[in-house]
TrEMBL record:
<dbReference type="GO" id="GO:0015940">
    <property type="term" value="P:pantothenate biosynthetic process"/>
</dbReference>
<dbReference type="Pfam" id="PF02548">
    <property type="entry name" value="Pantoate_transf"/>
</dbReference>
<dbReference type="GO" id="GO:0008168">
    <property type="term" value="F:methyltransferase activity"/>
</dbReference>
<feature type="binding site">
    <location>
        <position position="58"/>
    </location>
    <ligand>
        <name>Mg(2+)</name>
    </ligand>
</feature>
<feature type="active site" description="Proton acceptor">
    <location>
        <position position="195"/>
    </location>
</feature>
<keyword id="KW-0963">Cytoplasm</keyword>
<protein>
    <recommendedName>
        <fullName>3-methyl-2-oxobutanoate hydroxymethyltransferase</fullName>
        <ecNumber>2.1.2.11</ecNumber>
    </recommendedName>
</protein>
<keyword id="KW-0566">Pantothenate biosynthesis</keyword>
<comment type="pathway">
    <text>Cofactor biosynthesis; (R)-pantothenate biosynthesis; (R)-pantoate from 3-methyl-2-oxobutanoate: step 1/2.</text>
</comment>
<feature type="binding site">
    <location>
        <position position="128"/>
    </location>
    <ligand>
        <name>Mg(2+)</name>
    </ligand>
</feature>
<keyword id="KW-0808">Transferase</keyword>
<dbReference type="GO" id="GO:0005737">
    <property type="term" value="C:cytoplasm"/>
</dbReference>
<feature type="binding site">
    <location>
        <position position="97"/>
    </location>
    <ligand>
        <name>Mg(2+)</name>
    </ligand>
</feature>
<dbReference type="GO" id="GO:0003864">
    <property type="term" value="F:3-methyl-2-oxobutanoate hydroxymethyltransferase activity"/>
</dbReference>
<feature type="binding site">
    <location>
        <begin position="58"/>
        <end position="59"/>
    </location>
    <ligand>
        <name>3-methyl-2-oxobutanoate</name>
    </ligand>
</feature>
<keyword id="KW-0479">Metal-binding</keyword>
<feature type="binding site">
    <location>
        <position position="126"/>
    </location>
    <ligand>
        <name>3-methyl-2-oxobutanoate</name>
    </ligand>
</feature>
Length: 278
């Protein structure tokens, strides 16, 4: 019998989560708690804490490799970190990023996704883009690859965007993002991820989407939240984005901090208003 003080853990089984579970969670209003991960030890930590969705993000370029952007992360890097993260998971669902320019054509995306799923044991791939990746999303889903489309701030385009900036603040950009979200869902995307967009826009996209929408710096009304594991544990150096909360500050150990994050997502105390953008 589970006697954990955390309600979300008392209600959980250890059965591996599926896309059907995330669809049910959206329908029932249960928030999806997500974190990035890069190795088996942190994967086991997140699994114990009740994290639902684990992302092997190309953010490993920043937090593991020490780079200033994700552009230099290779497919080999992603396959390796996905495989060793999968080794630590029992219940959580594993999603892995397709790195910069590995999905420039639908066939290239399919080949890269094959490696992430076959060698890296990912259950879903994440691609940054809007309407321009709809054909690629359709191609992947035709061949049975689950896809999460990453919209809003797209870190792989940092040089094109001129920095890490909030996206979708003006009406035209917001309307375009709403249209892109609908197009990507119609193309077969199983999930959407919104990064650094105004809270009102994220709420609008989430309400219109029939697939789960995960937010990072996108306010409280998305179907779930994701943060970088190193950020919630206070391990990342330098200035933190406004949407980050250090859960280690009031915790006695890593397990407590990680479980506190999941509980805060589930009970909707995170993100608070100060973690979003207007």
């Amino acid at each position: 019998m589970n006697i954990s003080p955390y309600p979300h853990l008392q209600q959980q089984t250890r059965k591996p989560l599926t896309l059907a579970d995330f669809a049910r969670m959206k329908a029932e209003g249960e928030k999806i708690a997500s974190l990035t991960c890069y190795d088996a030890s942190f994967a086991a930590l997140e699994d114990r804490a009740g994290v639902d969705l684990v992302l092997v993000g190309d953010s490993l370029g920043n937090v593991i490799q020490g780079a200033s952007t994700t552009v230099g992360v290779s497919l080999d890097d992603m396959v390796y970190h996905s495989r060793i993260t999968a080794a630590g998971l029992e219940r959580a669902f594993l999603m892995t990023d397709l790195p910069f320019l590995t999905y420039a054509t639908p066939d290239a995306a399919l080949a890269a996704s094959h490696r992430l799923m076959a060698e890296g044991q990912a259950k879903m791939v994440k691609i940054e883009g809007g309407a321009e990746i709809a054909e690629t999303v359709s191609h992947l889903t035709t061949y049975g690859v689950p896809v999460c489309a990453h919209m809003g701030l797209r870190p792989q385009l940092v040089h094109k965007l001129g920095g890490f900036k909030v996206q979708g603040r003006d009406d035209a950009a917001a309307d375009a993002m709403v249209r892109d979200a609908r197009l990507l869902e119609e193309a077969g995307a199983d999930m959407l991820l919104l990064e650094c967009v105004p809270s009102t826009l994220a709420a609008r996209i989430t309400a219109a989407a029939s697939v789960p929408v995960i937010g990072i710096g996108a306010g409280p009304d998305t179907d779930g939240q994701i943060l970088v594991i190193y950020d919630i544990l206070g391990l990342s150096p330098g200035r933190k984005p406004r949407f980050v909360k250090n859960f280690m500050a009031d915790a006695d150990c890593l397990d407590t901090a990680t479980a506190d994050y999941v509980a805060a997502v589930k009970d909707r105390s995170y993100p608070a208003p100060e973690h979003g953008f207007k």
